[in-house]
Amino acid sequence: MTAYRDGAPRAVVTGLGIVSPIGLTIEEFWVNLTAGVSGIDFIRSFDASPHGVKIAGEVKGFEPDAYIPHKEARRMARFSQFAVAVARMAAEDACLEVTEENAESIAVVMNTGSGGVTTVASEEDILTARGPGRVSPFFVPLMSPNMASAQTSLQLGLHGPSVTSVAACAAGSMAMVEALRLIRSGDAEVVIAGGTEACIHPLAIAGFDNMRALSRRHGEPSAASRPFDRDREGFVLSEGAAAIVIESEEHARRRGAQVLCELAGGAITADAYHLTAPAPNGGGAILAMSRALDDAHLNRDELGYISAHGTGTALNDVAETRAIKAVFGERAYGIPVSANKSMIGHLCGAAGAVSAVVCVLAITRGVLPPTINLDTPDPECDLDYVPRVAREQRIQSAICNGFGFGGQNAVAAFRAV
């Protein structure tokens, strides 16, 4: 089948790329994720001793010069460097060659939650200490959230649509939905879609901590992120990026690409409830999951796996569990659900893109990653969260959930081919 409905093309996945606290390649990431390896540790990028929170999920060993010419990399904020890196990885994985003939048909959707917030903070320090004349002339293009997509287009030579949605922690999942719509509409034959975030900075740590959103479990950093566990204290702030090459099935087949799976459907909704808290009954999440399944023509009885938003906060985990039960009824208890944030922390604007990668790998490799640190399940969180140990299990379909501050929700659905 090459058409979705009314002649619209089907969208398939042909390549993956990732930069994360547990791996700088897809293989390294997947080996560590399925082994239950944690990337959470004490902050090393700045002196966190004055802060109440001293742990994070930092990316270690990333060298932007491996993906970007040195001079140009210096004119990018870290979140943009991550974006270009994962886009290049995904394009290489897809064996996608950009030429003069196809550049106009390749789009970029690289979303973020905060963009260059660290650049804003550092340049503010320079302004205060040294005066306006010392602020970088590249300040605006460094900090602008659209620069993740713009720099990806620039570095790869892509002339198709360049899109950025700043959608908090739903941004990465939203990129999948936006990419799907670009393929279906015919505005692009290929989309490099993903999310990126690099906001581990004293200002961001202080802000999230003062909201009481972050875990302060310093005695054992690797155990600090505890989605669905009774003793969870909050999420762990992390950084990184992920990208997926999505193209029309006809285009992929025509160029002989290896098709990993289908991006079958997606949906975007809003809670319209609270600035930071999810709707307690999971209303917006219920609508997003239901619409994504319907859009993908996936029967509720067919779904094989859910890559949960699973932040490890008191409110989110319960709301997401309630939403899953509302959508699937009694069958919710038979659907494996796992939270990769238990190992890598919360990548905010990149989180949903990472979860999308997890869905693709779970479908293609027949392994479901675990939710580590789930030692004492919350009685209100009583689903199958694949506790502590990965599970070998063949699945035919999966969804990734992304829920953000302000009540923004995005869900993408994937299916085996």
Short synopsis of the structure:
The chain has 417 residues and is an alpha/beta fold. It has helices spanning 26-34, 70-73, 78-93, 117-130, 139-143, 147-156, 171-185, 202-210, 249-254, 283-295, 314-328, 341-344, 351-365; strands at residues 11-19, 41-42, 55-56, 106-112, 162-163, 190-197, 240-248, 261-270, 306-307, 337-338, 367-368, 391-392, 397-404, 408-415.
Provide an overview of this structure.
By secondary structure, the chain is α/β, with parallel strands linked by helices. The chain has two domains: 11-254, Thiolase/Chalcone synthase (Peroxisomal Thiolase, Chain A, domain 1), CATH 3.40.47; 265-415, 3-Layer(aba) Sandwich (Peroxisomal Thiolase, Chain A, domain 1). Helices cover 32% and strands 18% of the residues. Helix 3 packs across helix 6 and helix 7 packs across helix 13.
How many domains, in number, for the residues?
2
What percent of residues are in strands?
A: 15-25%
Q: What Rg, in angstroms, do the CA atoms define?
A: 20 Å
What is the CATH topology of the largest domain? Peroxisomal Thiolase, Chain A, domain 1
What CATH architecture of the largest domain would you give?
3-Layer(aba) Sandwich
Low-confidence stretches: none
- Any idea what the CATH superfamily of the largest domain is called? Thiolase/Chalcone synthase
What characteristic shape results from the CA principal axes? globular
Number of DSSP-assigned strands: 14
Question: Widest sheet: strand order?
Answer: 5-4-6-7-1-8-14-13-9-10
**Structural class label:** alpha/beta
Task: Describe the sheet with the most strands.
Answer: 10 strands, mixed
Order of helices and strands: EHEEHHEHHHEHEHEHEHEHEHHEEEE
Mean pLDDT: 96
Distance between the termini: 10 Å
Task: Please tally the helical runs, counting DSSP H or I stretches of 4 or more residues.
Answer: 13
